[in-house]
Amino acid sequence: TFSPSQATPHLTINHDVAADLDSSNAFEGPEKLLEVWFAPGPTSLPAGVPQNGLKAVPSDTWVGMLDMVNCKILSVITSENVDSYLLSE
Amino acid sequence: SSMFVFPHKIILKTCGTTTLLLGLHRLLRIAAVDAGFPYHNTGSLDDIKAAATPYRVFYSRKNFLFPDKQQGPHRSWKQEVKYLDDMFEGGSAYMVGKMNGDHWYLYITSPGATHTPPRSPDEGKTTISPTRSKIPAGLVTPAEEVPQNVSDETLEILMTDLDPENAKQFYLSHASAVACEQVPLQAQEARKAAHDSLGGLSESCTSDGTTADEIFDVDDVDKGAGTATPMTDQAVLAESLTTEGHALGTVVSNNCGLSDVYPTSIYPDARIDAYMFAPCGFSANGVIPAPPGPDGAQSSFDEGNKSTNPSAHYFTVHVTPEPDCSFASFETNVPGGQKGRETADIIEHVVRIFRPGRFSVTLFETKGKGVNPYGSGMGIHDGANAESRQRLERIPGYRRMDRIVHDFDDYDLIFRFYERE
């Protein structure tokens, strides 16, 4: 058994969206999965790209893209190697 | 729906009538403009067409259940493939599984795909995509430059026809009732007092057990809270624990067994973010840093592979419990075996949570000598792990109907399909 380390991910909730979300009319069902790689690995980023690559992009910047997808950000877990976004619908 | 952002890749998994592919060009543009990834389809970032050149692209989905409800390019696989082909060069589309049953679709581009000159700006105009020239996927790093020790493994379980009893857990009414039982008595009493002060319209979260339908009345009561006695901190606590989506999501995650798929005894820094939708539906994301090594430093589950991708693991779960379209998905890139749980354990655990009538399991894993030496039991490199593979042939209560292997250039795809006995 290990003790939680300082690398423990951090959760942030977007209360503006999460508080009043009503999914009564949302059709759920099977998902579509898109995975886009821009480099073979996190340590193989091209020159000119910051060390944290896509993680350097602020959350707000993704909002516009997610609007086109019809999703809103409910919450975010940030960690050293991956940021996880929980989305509406 | 969920999104995972790594330094080098992004994963976007969206449910229902979302228009995932309509966001693709914006995604590529963000990668170029905001993250500085190279682009090749125009001369300037100021050009609206500017979009980062991906190293590779995967797009996959289960067969369509309600195509008429879908929007944009998502009404058929043919339209989705056309959209992707218009966007990228060198893509390949596949269907895996029974054509007249549950099957699975995949679109994939290869690293190092042949680059052809982009179309002229006026060519290929479309009202759907703002992109006028194809993105030459695979140009950033040719395949021969891929580090040989990078491993990648993604397990996906897609389940339909969920057991109705198990599916009840993913209704807000049920989750609220469970939460009520778990809220501390002191908070329950404070909550009841606050409601009594509002005219006693609802007992809501009482220790003697309140039905989920009664709890829905809470919302009506609280609309008047501003004109009556303010709720105490304890009452607010009770309120949030029994109605707020994230709080209820955590309750559901703990009660259904999802939190134990990657238990904190083995994965101490794991963090789960779960949300219970109203009136039903559930989503959860998990982030799982690797356990610290002997010297206290963060190590990787991929240690045996000398992976250059430490501590970057996730899982995600989405549930639609309605009987006419019940569906649940589980996806993870936590490698099976090694220092963690075997893939067969994970699959059995997840299947027990939902008890689906049918489910498919797909495993994508990089091939090569250095990959997954301990074996997930799923792959075709697992000769030494016959026992684990046997377990996958005999998921308790299920009959394995299909096992299909696709041998791609640098990945193996294993698709299995099971039906309840």
Describe the biggest sheet of chain B? 8 strands, antiparallel
Percent strand of chain A equals 15-25%
> Ranges of chain A with pLDDT <50 over ≥5 residues?
none
Radius of gyration of chain A: 16 Å
Largest interface: A-B, 73 and 100 residues
**Number of H/I helices of chain B:** 10
What gap, in angstroms, lies between the N and C termini of chain A? 37 Å
Helix residue percentage of chain A: 10-25%
Average pLDDT for all residues of chain A: 87
User: Please, what is the average pLDDT of chain B?
Assistant: 78
> How many E-type strands of chain A?
4
The percentage of residues in β strands of chain B lies in 15-25%
* Order of adjacent strands in the largest pleated sheet of chain B: 7-8-9-10-6-11-13-12
The tally of beta strands of chain B, per DSSP, is 13
- Return Rg of chain B in Å: 24 Å
Tell me about the largest β-sheet of chain A.
Answer: 3 strands, antiparallel
Element-level helix/strand string of chain B: EEHEHEEEHHHHHHEEEEHEHEE
Determine the structural class of chain B based on helices, strands and strand pairing.
alpha+beta
Q: Looking at the chains present, what oligomeric state does this protein adopt?
A: heterodimer
Descriptive notes:
The complex is a heterodimer of chains A (89) and B (421). By secondary structure, chain A is an alpha+beta fold. Chain A has two helices and four strands; from the N terminus they run βαβαββ. In chain A, a hairpin with a 4-residue loop joins strand 3 (73-78) and strand 4 (83-87). The longest helix of chain A is centred in the last third of the chain and has 11 residues, at 59-69. The model of chain A has no long low-confidence stretch (mean pLDDT 87). In chain B, the strands form three sheets. Chain B has an eight-stranded antiparallel sheet. In chain B, a hairpin with a 5-residue loop joins strand 7 (271-276) and strand 8 (282-287). Chain B starts with a strand and ends with a strand. The model of chain B is unreliable at 114-132, 142-146, 200-204, 206-228, 294-309 and 369-375 (pLDDT under 50). The chains are: A alpha+beta (89), B alpha+beta (421). At the A-B interface, strand 1, strand 2, helix 2, strand 3 and strand 4 of A face strand 1, strand 2, helix 1, strand 3 and strand 7 of B. Strand 2 (32-37) of chain A pairs antiparallel with strand 3 of chain B, so a sheet runs across the interface.
